[in-house]
Amino acid sequence: MNEKPLPFDERSIREIAAKYPTPFYIYNESAIRASARRLTSAFAWCAFKEYFAVKATPNPHLLKILKQENLGGDCSSLAELTLCGHVGITGENIMFTSNETQAKEYLRARELGAIINLDDITHIPYLEKHAGLPEVICLRYNPGPLREGNVIIGKPEEAKYGFTREQLVEGYRQLKAKGVRRFGLHTMVASNELNPDFFVETAKMLFELAVELARDPGVRIEFVNLGGGIGIPYRPGEKAVDLDFVGSHIEQAYQEIVVPAGLHPLKIFMENGRCITGPYGYLVTEAIHHKNTYKQYIGVDACMSNLMRPGMYGAYHHITVLGKEDAPLDHTYDVVGSLCENNDKFAIDRQLPAIEASDLLVIHDAGAHGYAMGFQYNGKLRSAELLLREDGSVKQIRRAETLDDYFATLDFSEL
Ligand SMILES: *Cc1c(COP(=O)(O)O)cnc(C)c1O
What we know:
It contains twelve helices and 17 strands. It is an alpha/beta fold. A hairpin with a 3-residue loop joins strand 10 and strand 11. The chain is globular and about 70 Å long. The chain binds pyridoxal-5'-phosphate.
């Protein structure tokens, strides 16, 4: 019945919940390690590196695990750079893909020796003025109407990111004249994309562009960064992206485009977040109320401030009621949180087994862009994050917030 298997059962989660009250996030270490390895091994044929998008799951304990799997970190802010620094992800193991960047962020990226990926041509003089130009620079390409985006990221020509084709030529020309010696080329045109061909097309586009840029303005691209955006099967029945298919088809394109142009060796980078940790993190919450009005509502102790993807994107997150994995799905519920916002719903008209108070619900695929997007509206506090380790033990990797945390920026004595 349960099409999305869990790495724990009701008994183990009740034991955990006795120590760490719900709601909490729990991540599966062995599955995260395995997913990092799957991506890396799909590109074993080339010089490949995955820079984990820190914004997806910004917890240093998870970053440390990913560092052990030889992943780098993709950062876009001062806090994300600082997190990488704390776990020893430094130098060219950091890709700094930011936009509307502040001088202090460029300075920190330079201190850490990160690869800086510029979002706009005006950032060349801005970076030079505030932090100096490094030896290696990457430019972010926005193909505009040449490529279709998808629902989450939108159409490329309406996206605020990246250089146009003409600006790219001019940008590399300027950088070369200013003494920059090593160059990368980046794009990110999809988010949560399940079609493997999309990533092959992106690689081809960047390979061809690298060949053209070798002619005009005559720069040798050292690496292409295909961005992140590999999707995950949120809905039962959806298929995970076949990474080996993506890797082998990109290899074919490499042989056809890169090698004959004399650009081998060209390194290939990616900066996925979602596909590395997304399916391996869960939000666990307790049913506390059952309300019967024009619809049937199950009120839970988590809310949209713990996981806002359903409210923000209408995203589907599968729900399992622990201990009722094999029960018939013969009830229709809205599963809702306590915010004074009617989009605070984890599920709408979902077929689930009969739910009673104190049942534990597992919200699946919350391991990326889950906790990270949390907020404190309505005075809701962020939950704890737990790690299910490879030996089966559980470690708290972030404590739950307290009211003192919530009030920490106020000075009541000045009232
Ligand atoms: C968000 C983002 C990523 C990661 O996206 P996922 O969907 O988590 O793979 C990578 N690169 C950039 C520039 C991003 O904005």
